[in-house]
Batch of 4 targets.
Target 1
Amino acid sequence: MLEKLKEEVLEANLALHRYGLVVFTWGNVSGRDRDTDKLVIKPSGVSYDEMKAEDMVVVDMDGKVAEGSLRPSSDTPTHVELYRRFPGIGGVAHTHSPWAVAWAQAGADLPCMGTTHADHFNGTVPCTRPLRRAEVEADYEQNTGTVIAEAFAELDPLQMPAVLVAQHGPFTWGSDAMDAVINSVVLEETAKMGAWTRQINAAAGSIPQYLLDKHFFRKHGSEAYYGQEAKRRS
Amino acid sequence: MLEKLKEEVLEANLALHRYGLVVFTWGNVSGRDRDTDKLVIKPSGVSYDEMKAEDMVVVDMDGKVAEGSLRPSSDTPTHVELYRRFPGIGGVAHTHSPWAVAWAQAGADLPCMGTTHADHFNGTVPCTRPLRRAEVEADYEQNTGTVIAEAFAELDPLQMPAVLVAQHGPFTWGSDAMDAVINSVVLEETAKMGAWTRQINAAAGSIPQYLLDKHFFRKHGSEAYYGQEAKRRS
Amino acid sequence: MLEKLKEEVLEANLALHRYGLVVFTWGNVSGRDRDTDKLVIKPSGVSYDEMKAEDMVVVDMDGKVAEGSLRPSSDTPTHVELYRRFPGIGGVAHTHSPWAVAWAQAGADLPCMGTTHADHFNGTVPCTRPLRRAEVEADYEQNTGTVIAEAFAELDPLQMPAVLVAQHGPFTWGSDAMDAVINSVVLEETAKMGAWTRQINAAAGSIPQYLLDKHFFRKHGSEAYYGQEAKRRS
Amino acid sequence: MLEKLKEEVLEANLALHRYGLVVFTWGNVSGRDRDTDKLVIKPSGVSYDEMKAEDMVVVDMDGKVAEGSLRPSSDTPTHVELYRRFPGIGGVAHTHSPWAVAWAQAGADLPCMGTTHADHFNGTVPCTRPLRRAEVEADYEQNTGTVIAEAFAELDPLQMPAVLVAQHGPFTWGSDAMDAVINSVVLEETAKMGAWTRQINAAAGSIPQYLLDKHFFRKHGSEAYYGQEAKRRS
């Protein structure tokens, strides 16, 4: 069932490791199949060295295991919630990459301080509000998805494929599993650059809207002129 | 004598190097054998490139060499003291990994600023008090174990498998030698994240108790639901 | 056409990656052929793994493609502008290397704080003024070259082969494509050292002119005595 | 002439690269032959990839080339001056490793903030005074050695095998060329730890003298009990 997607999801999980975003098993990536409306996700707590495509777990949109002998990632309900809330996305990635975690632990939005950020994210990457006691004690992982969705009430998740969950760390998404991973790499890089920028100039803030628009839309949307084909993401 | 444990302890010492936690010979790991109540530890000042399982030194719970032609790590009395004080542990690791050292040199406890930390350590990682002159001048290495135990007067070493020795650096422990090393990796990562969090937000502090409980106990104890088996550590 | 230069430009682009200056396709290098007054540049958005010499694009000094089936880097008009303004240069490199980006995003000139910097750059590396709205909205990439040239009104680009474009990142140049890349490496290293110096001593500033002169001119110009041949750049 | 020493000096120069202390050719190591009172040093500006033992240059204690077809490192007069001033040493290393450079550019002594430092350096690593104009303009490299010696008026170079040259960077020395390199590695690591310690606690200072003595003398001198042989350095 969904063997090709399992391969893609395995590749994307291994890419997390290759890009240096995860220590041990501290990350998980999923991909969605539109035809069956099921998702494929990494099993919980299995080391990257041992993972095989057949270990990937198929889960339905109620978060129930549809196929697979291993337990899915404990963050599965967050992934499910994101697919439900953001129907346009095809992959989700979660890491504990350290600079993104630092902004999340700081409870701070990541402003768009330069063109590297603007090339990929259309504005400030939001940090969610902290979850409340009741939200943590029951349905914690699903509620993590809920507070993310709340932070996106006025944002387009296709133009802002990343979030910082306060006190926790980043989630990113994209057109498929690997695209979600690429956005995790970009988020870590821009989170690092943002912290270093503030180290040099504590007053550094967002770039002007016209520069943000220029960079974001030269790579995304119908007017894009970056890359070899219009609409191609970096 | 204890050939299997020697292999495990060698592997754990090499893992210190592989995880980038040590420069030269600046680290040591030991494992305890419950049947004979002896410990196996790295020899002093031998390079990781040359170490073999047969070089590992067997020491009894009075710190005397029971087998081995090489001198044991000069930190052996600290390891012995920790096994005596914390009967539930099976492995001890000591490194000079730089972020953990920085917190230790700063004389600062490492607060639980986020879920990465909460997944592994049940609360603030304590920093010991500095040793006094008399404690340094006689039985220094044993007294290092003593001040660690003092810092744990009201802490459960099985839920807090790490400490920062003031002016010095980290010790960690676990169910066996490799588990102790894993906790050294986690401590370095969370020490780094904590410093970076404070760099972004100097007022960042501990997460709420309910979020700490949620993360710690979803991975540890009878209610754990992370990983493929209950009670499995990450 | 210009097959040898294409090989050099490919090598220089791959060197960006090897030196750890770029993530994904976030960089581009070009080289100039003096006989034909054409430049060879990396294609846009092609991954470093797949790039071949024959993919390099030949562009004339009006920025028009003279040979090649792929679209040239979207930053091509900036490269063209730099070759026009700085007739002595033979290669240009652009990266988003993180420390140089941090200074650029901070909007700060990089002072010459020590001899590492003085060995390569004759003084403060300038940060441009931000581009104005009109400069961004029309001919953005060419105007990036214009504001760089403006910052060099009183500087010799052969003695200062680097610039920080405000809100964006670094451009460097040199005698050929690889020399431009070497200057990108040096800029990243000195940008890092400068930030770390300020972290230790917030008041640290430029070294005296006589020390700058000593270091710069022992490696450059007719009195150079560093290396195996006079006038050889490091 | 001195073929064995040339091999050792080559190995030590390559080790600078392997330990990640140098970029391009930004470092040099020499070794001294006591019988002939000559030193062997890296040639100037030759890349580490291409260097062979036979390229090493033999220089006498007046700084004149005694053998070798290549020009010796431009820092040779500093090495010569150090061997003259510190008769007990057998090797000298100079790098631009970034954390040590940052302290040097900051013009700051590196205090002994913890046991990692105390294991290797007996106290604060001194930063020299800046060279004066006249000292830079004539015999600059020799005068660099002179200001180092001045900083050691009351220090034992065998117990403090490292210095930070203000506005420039580190020099280290040791019993032979490789020992000097090891001290460069240690200096970079402790310089990094010191900066990170101050980042966490801006008031962090030196450890007490009794802890410094304990750590330094458990590894050095007649009472040493670290390692497998008395008097063995780390």
Note: The longest helix of chain B spans residues 177-200.
Target 2
Amino acid sequence: MSLLVRSIGELVTNDPSLGDGSALGLVRDAALVVEDGRVAWVGDASHAPATDRVIDAEDGAVIPGFVDSHTHLVFAGDRAGEFAARMAGEPYTGGGIGTTVAATRAASDGELRANLARLRDEALHQGTTTIEIKSGYGLSTADEVRSLRVAREFTAETTFLGAHVVPAEFEGRDDDYVSLVCGEMMKSALPHARWVDVFCERGAFDGDQARAILLAGMGVGLLPRIHANQLTHGPGVQLAVELDAASADHCTHLSDADVDSLAGSTTVATLLPGAEFSTRSPYPDARRLLEAGATVALASDCNPGSSYTTSMPFCVAVAVREMRMTPAEALWAATAGGARALRRPDVGHLGVGAVADLSVLDAASFVHLAYRPGVPLVRTVLLSGEPQ
Amino acid sequence: MSLLVRSIGELVTNDPSLGDGSALGLVRDAALVVEDGRVAWVGDASHAPATDRVIDAEDGAVIPGFVDSHTHLVFAGDRAGEFAARMAGEPYTGGGIGTTVAATRAASDGELRANLARLRDEALHQGTTTIEIKSGYGLSTADEVRSLRVAREFTAETTFLGAHVVPAEFEGRDDDYVSLVCGEMMKSALPHARWVDVFCERGAFDGDQARAILLAGMGVGLLPRIHANQLTHGPGVQLAVELDAASADHCTHLSDADVDSLAGSTTVATLLPGAEFSTRSPYPDARRLLEAGATVALASDCNPGSSYTTSMPFCVAVAVREMRMTPAEALWAATAGGARALRRPDVGHLGVGAVADLSVLDAASFVHLAYRPGVPLVRTVLLSGEPQ
């Protein structure tokens, strides 16, 4: 079965050899042909070959599916009370991340699966077609493995984040926990994970611990990524570049050397503006990274503590408003950028050969994702050419 | 036909005599009975009377429908290019508001109606059940009347805003245009409008012109509201209070005297954070107004130039993040506050006797409107008790 997707509006391909030759490879009055779930042909609608089926986007823009390369979707419970207290500037005496760890451990597999399915569907209907999902609210071998097993039911991009924080039962024994993560926990996580991640931050894991954890993961075949420089300047970004991590995530507090290192590397700087929005924190300096030549991705960081949004359109709008990305830079970062952050050449663009993951918008241009903030503009989502 | 809406989550009534006694009148494990489109009973679900039909919100929160008291939905065309240039910090040589005036004048009635219907539906499905709609892109007697006629097909809350800007053909003859607005245009608008509004701002209409226009409208029976103190300190707020206008809208640049005047009046301070979001401008100081005792409303300002969002949940989230409103204050402002800004005691709350306009959320608490920014959380909308 072949499918033709037609738009008299604009088609964003992220293939600069197509259309207007920009990074977005923008084609107007375009058609895209899907065969066997992949893009088989892209070009001027008047030259499109005949196909079995047609989806007419009319004047709606067509964009590659969002690649959300950073989420924490395996959890139970919510922390609305903590959020409301933070927004009111009040001290909060609850348990923070520990609350989510306790709720996650107490939940059944079915509860974790149902919550994840709900959030995955929510993301999908807002145009997210590839999603990375981390563990990190289990923090025991059994609970981390269970989290990854459930995550793997929904995505190939699973990340072992046993090193999210040191759990309460290891208080004062950080190094014992690091040993557990590097040993038994890593080995048990391995069959269910593609990536290994660590929260390298004051109060979580320092540079030496983070290096040990990432090297242990790499030693058994996991690929590294890292939570780096979110709350303070720290060694995370340098470590990411040293280990050729696919991505350094957050990048809120960067030295000139950090920016230069990222620009000279294949490590993507993944920015997570939902976290700054929801914690009322200063945003990362996207322009500094872009102007230095670093590759920038946008992701949601969806989690119940610091960024409980699944909405990549929202992240695009905030990136434009607050981080001074252009709408084109923000869309590229949320699609092609995310794909680079996951080292996935098959997604995040609509060049020939790509997986036919795309969205049709209720808008004439992708610019509307930022121009019309908060409005649900995703009309139709295709996964491998199949309408969802 | 009687209807029962049940929620084991929370029901926001905005009636402080109900539930927890807060301004939101929050009832848990609640039921609400609708008869003849109005709320007939509210209370503990275990005491609810029998009804013909039941809507079970399960653990979803139930909130009053949003009252969006400030929109400019009668127009044609869009200004995505102008938006993108502004976000990139580039000069824009296009026509600004004049572009929309030209497109609106050139559009057929059917085109204006279709665009308005699309935006009205978009707003409705995000929980807006009462909407004010202004003219102001016609700027000739025929085009203003036509705009109001189309708007009146969608809402009783129509506002004559012939005094939006001075149109190009009256350049250098402001007072002639004011005379036209106060005379023939006002008289022709009257059958189609409830309100009269003026953009009182440097570059638009000064305090004396604004007073003349509002008094002319009031003289024929229209009720006053005013665009005040958006871009600069100006006389708008004082004029609003002097004339007992229902609302002074924007309120971004206020003196202490302005704040005191609002607090001592029945004029609502309507804040429009979508405009500051989309123009990258400083936000109004909501806390200063709230702490002085002024009544605050939130509205979308939906228009194609400076705030092209229909999403009241988005405005709530931004009000919490940027204007330091609590989630409870923001929800109240977007519902009961909007109703006061339209002097409509029958909407914006769910006390007995209110119109049964409400939304069921895909969330256990109204807090999620801010906690989960950008996520479409409105599951079901009822207008006068009828699911939409």
Note: The mean pLDDT of chain B is 96.
Target 3
Amino acid sequence: MARALYPGSFDPVTNGHLDIIRRAAALFGHLRVAVFANPDKTGLLAPAERVALLREVLADDRRVTVDLGEGLVVRYAEREGFDVLVRGLRLPSDYEFEYPLALMNRHVSATGIETVFLPTRAEWSFVSSSLVRDLARHGASLAGLVPPAVERALREKWGGTPRRGAD
Amino acid sequence: MARALYPGSFDPVTNGHLDIIRRAAALFGHLRVAVFANPDKTGLLAPAERVALLREVLADDRRVTVDLGEGLVVRYAEREGFDVLVRGLRLPSDYEFEYPLALMNRHVSATGIETVFLPTRAEWSFVSSSLVRDLARHGASLAGLVPPAVERALREKWGGTPRRGAD
Amino acid sequence: MARALYPGSFDPVTNGHLDIIRRAAALFGHLRVAVFANPDKTGLLAPAERVALLREVLADDRRVTVDLGEGLVVRYAEREGFDVLVRGLRLPSDYEFEYPLALMNRHVSATGIETVFLPTRAEWSFVSSSLVRDLARHGASLAGLVPPAVERALREKWGGTPRRGAD
Amino acid sequence: MARALYPGSFDPVTNGHLDIIRRAAALFGHLRVAVFANPDKTGLLAPAERVALLREVLADDRRVTVDLGEGLVVRYAEREGFDVLVRGLRLPSDYEFEYPLALMNRHVSATGIETVFLPTRAEWSFVSSSLVRDLARHGASLAGLVPPAVERALREKWGGTPRRGAD
Amino acid sequence: MARALYPGSFDPVTNGHLDIIRRAAALFGHLRVAVFANPDKTGLLAPAERVALLREVLADDRRVTVDLGEGLVVRYAEREGFDVLVRGLRLPSDYEFEYPLALMNRHVSATGIETVFLPTRAEWSFVSSSLVRDLARHGASLAGLVPPAVERALREKWGGTPRRGAD
Amino acid sequence: MARALYPGSFDPVTNGHLDIIRRAAALFGHLRVAVFANPDKTGLLAPAERVALLREVLADDRRVTVDLGEGLVVRYAEREGFDVLVRGLRLPSDYEFEYPLALMNRHVSATGIETVFLPTRAEWSFVSSSLVRDLARHGASLAGLVPPAVERALREKWGGTPRRGAD
């Protein structure tokens, strides 16, 4: 059976990511989540912090393992024995970005790695890590957007109050 | 493990469909292909002909079964015990059409049926059944667009010559 | 203050339409909803039935009036003294359809009629009258997609059972 | 030098089409405009009427010839010795429709026919034959959207008054 | 009646922005324009200069007030008592960017703030602050793209000649 | 006859660019390729290196000349006597970026410069300089994506092995 990898920057992991993770884990029976940080950008959280938060919020799900990726996603996937990459899709602009990447990954892969896309649930369709980072930097509540552990971690870092609409 | 269904109108099946079928069968270990005809449209081929052609071109692949669907896709999937629908994506307009459908199928499903999308290979990204039908009606060659059995069947119906560029 | 008109085919009115109606009525203090049927298409419901259902589900909202439109939307708007058309937007393909229409309506209008777009709430972003019609024709439950009065009316017409996931 | 063909349905020709025609004629030194009618649709104007109107409005431009096309565009182009198809683009949805068609035309062509796209000027970006047909059927003014000869021809057919905003 | 806020970076204000401002002011009877600068980017003009230019070009319009915003747009709007955000839309990619933002603003707002979109007039559909900045940096004429006061201010800063096509 | 210019950053030139170059040269009988570097970005290759590589891979094509551009593309085109800009299009997002630019170039040009778009062949539709740069930085094989001379040049700079799937 296909072994599935969900690569991403997860800065931070959102409720939308979590939904994709649990649904992909159910589809494939197992899922590896791997954090790949863009070396050209300073993120909100260090890559190791992102891994730690993912492990904390996914601690109850034995189908999921979390790792810190490195280098090209496709090389990591080949080295670790994955057959398929998982990516979530919200609006069509996501697909415009992901489609060439999926074809390129297959082209450069020695094993013909596949990409499958899962459609994000409607209720998370507007949630992105970049909008969440923007809220966090202004100390706004992140309730309903990220898991509580993530909100706590960001609040310690950036301040702000926990109650939505009252911050 | 997830049981996968690839619903479509397949009027006719193209090389792009075949590519999605073989890749999805490899991912899930098995694939059911089901022909759902739009009752409001007169197709090029009768639904039973489409099923027969799919069975002919997929005869060598034991992971794949072909069926004639009926009614709502999501009800067929529930009744037959499928967990996930497979759809191929070419340009973003495909995704604009498929995204609401995937969310709606999940909404009306008692079992929370999933949809996964596979990106079409670059070389088939411009091939659609509707463009193929248009060529077939004008007797043009379909070489490289559909399996030979499909080209033969359409030529018997519509005439035209087999050689590309010479029709 | 601007007088606002929400034109549409409403075949049938969905929960997504209702959300746009109530939000537009709050923004402008008043809203006229007008049913314009496409003369080239046979709808699911007759235009007068659509008006009756809209009136029933909006009976409690004194800011909203419902009418049967006729002819060009822009002429109806001028004749009845409206300054602005309201339209809901879901995916970008909605906007691709609506943008030229808005510019054309302004061009042919003697009074320079405006169009304002409201973004559909995430939870209704996948709901369209055409997907609802497809479910209704197959007797599927419409719970959560349309107001109860609309579901009752369609069930009387098309049969099917009221419980979601059990039809 | 490349010989250029501008195929279309031109039902009716609009100011947007005319702009593309004059710019393409300047680029290539010559342009053939060919009317291809969709046999599955009843148009507003008969194909021969469309050709006659194109000839009338383009009578002053010696670089342009007008013809009634037939069959597949790509076969017509090969038979008549054209190397390149010209198409105008407005919104991205135009390109989503045209891109697969351009690749398909090249694929089925014995001579590797090219397609070049010209971007529509901003002022005509919302003008389409289908919106013009809709206005014409309701007797609205078409001033600024089509050449005067086309407006006259449609008014004789459908009635309506010539003044914008007063019809 | 709804109180409307038009937030943006306005670096610099263009004729497209001005058109949206005047139309939104007419729709709502009043409009607040607020400059929010992206703290991560060095702009062409300092935020205070953008405010000064907006005030200069809008001095004749008593319905419009201009302010320097700060922090999250949604918090500014709540604090100042606005009910609705106004945004202009050009191509669909604008909407892809704005749609998640509108849903997010509503989500984090204690008062359920709305966003309404106005379609940009065709003649300004290609004008953006970023393309204007690029022209300004090369000393090209900005005639027809920005108000004369803005062109003067940028020319003092960047040089270049005022005549189009002759710079 | 129209004189054609293909401006771009070409960091590095890909097989997709080469295909556009040869097809545009055939259409117009001649093509100037000009490298315009974005002064705000540090590229992978210096502008002079990009010119040298273009000259090397195009040495056999007497219809094509290569130059280092400078300043605004439209000013360079006017100064050098070009009538038309050539750009390749892959996915619709390319067109969303290029359409306003084409209209702006025409607006600021004293001579009304045109832009024509050529659709990228399906097999190169996923190839972009930015994805190639990402592969090069990780030492991955670029076989099938760029001309051999470009692959050699990048390998000398970044290391990595030449065999696909084995790097």
Note: Chains F and C do not touch (no CB pair under 8 Å).
Target 4
Amino acid sequence: MKYISLLGSTGSIGTQTLDIIKEHPTEFSLAAMSVGRNVNLARQIIAEFHPELVCMLEKDDAESLKLEFPKISFTYGPEGLSEVAVYKKSTILVNAVMGSVGLEPTLHAIEAGKTIALANKETLVTAGHIVMEAVRRNQVPLLPVDSEHSAIFQALQGEYEKNIDKLILTASGGSFRDRTRNELENVTVQDALNHPNWSMGAKITIDSATMMNKGLEVIEAHWMFGVPYENIDVVLHKESIIHSMIEFHDSSVMAQLGTPDMRVPIQYALTFPNRLPLKTAQRLNLAKVGQLHFAEMDMERFRCLKFAYEAGMAGGTLPTVLNAANEIAVEAFLKGKITFLQIEDLIENTLTNHQSIMEPSLAEIKAVDVDTRKYVNSLL
Amino acid sequence: MKYISLLGSTGSIGTQTLDIIKEHPTEFSLAAMSVGRNVNLARQIIAEFHPELVCMLEKDDAESLKLEFPKISFTYGPEGLSEVAVYKKSTILVNAVMGSVGLEPTLHAIEAGKTIALANKETLVTAGHIVMEAVRRNQVPLLPVDSEHSAIFQALQGEYEKNIDKLILTASGGSFRDRTRNELENVTVQDALNHPNWSMGAKITIDSATMMNKGLEVIEAHWMFGVPYENIDVVLHKESIIHSMIEFHDSSVMAQLGTPDMRVPIQYALTFPNRLPLKTAQRLNLAKVGQLHFAEMDMERFRCLKFAYEAGMAGGTLPTVLNAANEIAVEAFLKGKITFLQIEDLIENTLTNHQSIMEPSLAEIKAVDVDTRKYVNSLL
């Protein structure tokens, strides 16, 4: 039995992680979990999965749920996230919480020797140098949950990292892949939320449409696999069947494929290095799919991807700024305060106005994160 | 330094193996080799690669070359092939000889503890049960050279065989993939030899056009990876970019891709489990390729594939009959004695008329091979 700590239980990755736990009741058990503000869903999950420790965002919610579930321990707030992350019984942390709040629990779990299944983008984007140093020092497995990084990780099994020539991330192109920049002028929030291949949360769906999601993935891939940015390519692949690839120096390309289903990479992270059956997954039938399409990525069409490469290559606190500016800009777009293309403008403006700090400490990253959010909000 | 015994040095796989040895002179050395009747090419190879032992098909050729290269040992005939295969200095046998003559040298090399890089189809098709038992008993690595089996083998690294749900072999469709059966009535030898993706020998190019090549590969894959025929699929993929795939029981599909180039799987067999750079290989650029196509395999259109599945599933000496009948039929087609579609008819007739022997011994396999050739020749 593998005991799991799950941060972000009610989100898209969180609920699908619970599906996997449910699918394999003799293999996995939910030991500890965190929930944001969705008390109703928290109640259902607690009743079904019987975790021993639950962290709520708000103290009030923790206290009221405690009355309903007196045998279960409750905690709350950012410190509570770390309590869940290092919960003694758990051997693996699935970090599916959104935002920079996910960073510190990951670091605590690494120091506590837990295996990390990482879905929280900010962990590597803002503090890749700190996280990877901690991973190496504590020799804990860092397992990707994102479909692209999982594909690369699966393709890397049985191989030597030194033989990698190139990582090739595939990008569906998001909701607006067939539109020109001119056609993006007046797109609505509803248009943007209509992703062709993946059913995901609002923030990540917008990030797919701006291609910032791929940009953040490039930065994550850089840290997770230790590959320089020059050797990370992105190719448009609208079917999202090939989830990503590695090109080795003998020219051989290893790829992982499948019908888009986040439960596959989630389960792989939980079962690694083994696999377990996933009977409810829709099997890939390439003859039925018929065609797979690929096209070059246009960095002028998808400016956020260019910003991400530039911020990643420059390093320091620029990726933190990129990420924080993007979060606030996407939030503003979702609230109807700015247009779709203004997301890019806000990010560009913010990156340009930032004085990067090299090799930032955790405190410096946090401060830059807070300052960036203030700055972008001041522009709205 | 890895010392190599190479059977079939002047063929398509043989010369490309020599290219790889030449590309990595500090890694590989040709210790022993065999040549059929191509004395001129043998002379060039000997002068360039300085093998210590050379086997010629004919005694006369061996004797005349001995006069030119007095420091080199020469041998000849089928026994000579086995001498090359077990040559003391060699740690790996690359068996790229064509036909059933390749079987015994493989078995001798396995008993001598050599690593086997297998390009000779007959070894597994006719005697899979004997060969795999010897491989297990002697615990030698059996490495595929065929691009499809190499793709599967590469996809299997870091995985457990027990987690395999399905092998998916890709098939280009060969020279006639876009023709109906009616359009095959009067095709010429020249038409058939014009393969769209791969530059190979005449026999294998015809086998691609009839789909017998894929059929033999299915039987090989069955033995090499221990997967039942029901779990081996063939999908048409005209670009030959995805070289084959494994579907695991979590629905994840691992694939190996590349621009068609036999040197890649040959080199992988020589470097396994490592890889070495192959600078002259053309890199895969999927954006440039643009599209990959897949279609279901039609067993009525490609009857040889159906024969192969049936012979493989029935087992015993039927795969030997399939292979021998095919060899004689293809030879007859290449000589203009029969039409393209008569290849299928001859094979079907021969399979129907054979009384299969289950779990045949090596002697029985040999006898059936000889008898089948006589029988098919009697029909011409």
Note: The first helix of chain B runs from residue 12 to 23.
